[in-house]
Amino acid sequence: MKKFMNDVNQTENEMILGLVKAYPNDLQKLDCGNVVVRRIKKENKVALISGGGSGHEPAHAGYVGTGMLDAAVAGAVFTSPTPDQIYEGIKAIANDAGVLMVIKNYTGDVMNFEMAAEMAEADGILVKQIIVNDDVAVKDSLYTVGRRGVAGTVFVHKIAGAAAERGDDLGQVQETANKVIANVRTMGAAIRPCTVPAAGKPGFELAEDEMEVGIGIHGEPGTHREKIKTANEIVDLLLDKILSDIDYEGSEVAVMVNGSGATPLMELFIINNRVSDVLKEKGISVYKTYVGEYMTSIEMEGFSVSLLKLDAQLKSLLDEKADTPAWKA
Amino acid sequence: MNKEKIILVIDQMAVAMEKQKEFLTELDNVIGDGDHGINMARGFSETIKKRDSLAKMDAGDMIKNLGMILVSTVGGASGPLYGTAFMKAGMFLKGKEEVTFPDFLEAFACAIEGVMARGKAAEGEKTMLDAMLPAKRAMEQEWMLSGDGKKSMEAGLTAARKGIEYTKTIIATKGRAAYLGERSIGHQDPGATSFVFLLEAIASQM
Fold first, then answer.
1. Which of A33, A41, B87, B124 has its CA 20 to 30 A from that of B115?
2. CB A146 within 8 Å of CB A105
């Protein structure tokens, strides 16, 4: 393993410290752990908290700021944060309007956030949650844990954050967040794995000419493995799955082409070139496009495509101003 | 089992988790997210740091606090699950200075209930429960027959190890391995495996 690191056990802590030092006027870290909050606390408006394992930077701490999150809790790499840390985050941002937890659908994340919510509720804090499950690569079934939460989560941060910032109440913000979840779908692929620092070696192996289709943001296996194809063919494969999952016909969408950490922008633009053409062909109009690193997987070489189906409400919230380290517009 | 023995069990658990760190992580790499061994080792190394304060508590508080340390240091899914298990067992054992085998069986039943509630899971879903529940049944049965704690523990271990083998044959429907569907068949569950190591640690001090 070769990485720019000091002590494996300090990875998350040093990363969060470095982030906060880059935005000293906007962000602060709580003393109790790797919890990032806004320097100026929002009052009388719904506060949003999210988080998860580290290794997905800029998610989630990079989205703390005006118009998006109020707090982000960073667990160990690819490991859910613990209830006590999440609880500290909730306490730091809570006001009378209540707190919405944005959770990616993983067993550990859901359990840890729920335990934290139980602790906060015991203090009289009003807490609600929404669970993001945008990954079409995995089967959605009543009998399983359901789909994974991946890059589409960033759209939830943006839109629910805008709704909270303009003063919607907790029920409304939750409803809006659920509307985003109902309308966003994502799928990814990767050609090279990532290495969790504490593990010291790659989480999986791929032959030089192989790719994993439908891969998760922790390098979890997807739908299948096959020989690598051209960028256009891979995009078509992913879009096929996404477009057949909900009806996008005649709709306006926001597109996110998300790099997994080691995919150059050059390739992400090549990918977007095809995404854009295919959508045009299918009569789907692109309202906005985001190309870059929004939800990474350390240094995995891969990407995902997310499509968010928009209506007037979602468009106006997407257009609202946000000012965070990783999302400014 | 007295308090001194329980502390030795905790030591033994920490040793086992450190020793099996890579093995558990390997298992998790195949069907999960590759952090189980790392997380468990981190959590139990924290319990060793707090060994002196744990040693001052009664058996119930000691085990409950062990659970709280795990909840706040392990993370992932195993943190809340094992944490809840030890917290529930500790709450049952509240005020006790010594734990008899029937106490242990009842505390273990409380722990399993806690895991099922927290994880919203049942037997046959390729989780730690597939080792825990057979172990519970085997220990209860042997205890009824022989009234011999050591033999009951052996029976529990044998059943739990069979449980690991059983997890190889079934599809995961809970936890991150569930995303693999049929591809999870053939691989043993890391949580069921770590449970066997913890049970071995308990057995080692009987």
1. A33
2. yes
